[in-house]
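User: Predict the complex with BIS(adenosine)-5'-pentaphosphate.
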Amino acid sequence: MTINIILLGPPGAGKGTQARRLVEERGMVQLSTGDMLRAARSSGTEMGRRVAEVMDRGQLVTDEIVIGLIREKLAEGGKGFIFDGFPRTLAQADALGQLLAETGNSLDAVIEMQVDDEALVRRITGRFTCGNCGEVYHDDTRPTKVPGVCDACGSTDLKRRADDNEDSLKTRLLEYYKKTSPLIGYYYAKGKLAPVDGLAEMDDVAGQIAKALGG
Ligand code: AP5
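Assistant: Here is the predicted structure with BIS(adenosine)-5'-pentaphosphate placed in the model:
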């Protein structure tokens, strides 16, 4: 059975971590607007430069840009999408509904990853990722087995994100509470919301998501 889901939660809630597991375990397609925007910023274009400034401040990129990115991906076809970090505003949520309908898809569930702000600061400031394969690590909760070497692909290109500092995180959290958290009520009203305890161990969170998706 093919399903399309949204992973909804504040910065550091574990959306990327769980999305990668769903890709591995269920062969789903991860559509992370954060990853797409990071690819755009390293493209060296004028648009990429503007995107980089906004992201580093911790603010949201315009709806027009991110909806355009998702539209392109959905037009490529495929099934079983994980929307990771999208939608983040009501306008994006409405646009996603329309794009799914136009491409003959539907939305099955919105996994709301519940966490508290204190845990987010620890998670964000300890995070690093592999520049080659995108695997996500943490200094304390998920270090690499061999220091400086990615467990998944063996690359030594391990990086910290420019927006993973306490100042940007404050803005990212404010943006989340002002613009993204209204989506919790939006999807609750549509009967799609499935809350999970994002503070649990990673395997436990994965189990809760599997249960919400029907095993
Ligand atoms: P984006 O890349 O989407 O970042 P984010 O939403 O801030 O989320 P993160 O990637 O920081 O966290 P995550 O929830 O994926 O957590 P992770 O799994 O890595 O967006 C970045 C920027 O792009 C935005 O600020 C904005 O500017 C722009 N943007 C993106 N989408 C946009 C949109 N739709 N509209 C407008 N602008 C947009 O986990 C974090 C850490 O915790 C890791 O180290 C991990 O190992 C650890 N961890 C994970 N789970 C657990 C657990 N259960 N227990 C202990 N540790 C855990």
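The chain has one domain: 3-28+78-213.
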